[in-house]
Write a structure and sequence with these properties.
single chain, 218 residues, alpha+beta, six-stranded antiparallel sheet, 8 helices, globular
């Protein structure tokens, strides 16, 4: 795999500056939890961003701003749906995923549960206010994601297990990027179940599945 610490330095810099979309910020945090080199690269970017911030002139806060922030946090926590851990499918697997994803996966299941687009494939929509679609995929060993292209760039970060396609094999911490010109058929590797965080602007299925998708207006 290409060294992400050098390939995605601009992405890490945007994360450190606090300007990165929430979906991609989650991707950076999660990859940092899996890879030392990414974590170190983010730390360097954060240090540089901190130096720039210290050089800026301080702006006064509006009266009561801090109280409003705490009130918003409390309101969000009160609205978070709860479900007993024993009721959640694959809970033991999810609890072993990187920390940035675990609570989001629990909340997503409480909102709507797993969707099962194909045999051996499950997905959770992680609604975190991103402009992109952010999903957690569970791919059983040997299961095949239908052949598809992409409406925009798709970032796939493997969290556990692994999958393979025509471009290679991907394991925990690996990040694969596909564009509109790429068509692929990911297959779950044998052994451990594959979990992947996928951020994209929409999949475009090809072949028979693509016909079904178009007839459904998706």
């Amino acid at each position: 795999m290409t060294d992400p610490a050098s390939q995605y330095s601009e992405l890490y810099a945007a994360y450190a500056a606090g300007t990165l979309d929430p979906g991609y910020a989650l991707m950076v945090e999660t990859q940092g939890a899996l890879r030392d080199d990414v974590r170190q690269s983010v730390a360097v970017s954060e240090a540089a961003a901190g130096m720039l911030l210290e050089a800026e002139e301080a702006a006064p806060m509006a009266e009561g701003a801090l109280d409003r922030v705490f009130a918003a946090i409390d309101a969000g926590a009160a609205k978070t749906p709860q479900r007993a851990a024993a009721e959640m499918p694959e809970i033991n697997e999810i609890e072993r995923l990187p920390e940035p994803v675990v609570k989001l996966a629990r909340d997503a299941f409480a909102r709507g549960g797993w969707k099962r687009p194909a045999r051996g494939i499950s997905r959770l929509n992680l609604d975190i206010g991103s402009d992109a679609r952010v999903e957690l995929y569970r791919i059983q060993p040997g299961a095949t994601v239908p052949r598809h292209t992409h409406g925009a760039q798709e970032y796939t970060l493997v969290l556990a297990g692994g999958y393979s396609d025509a471009t290679g094999s991907y394991g925990p911490g690996d990040l694969a990027v596909k564009g509109p010109d790429d068509t692929h058929v990911p297959v779950g590797d044998e052994g451990e179940v594959c979990y992947a965080l996928i951020i994209h602007g929409g999949l475009r299925l090809t072949g028979a599945m693509g016909l079904v998708q178009r007839l459904m207006g998706r």
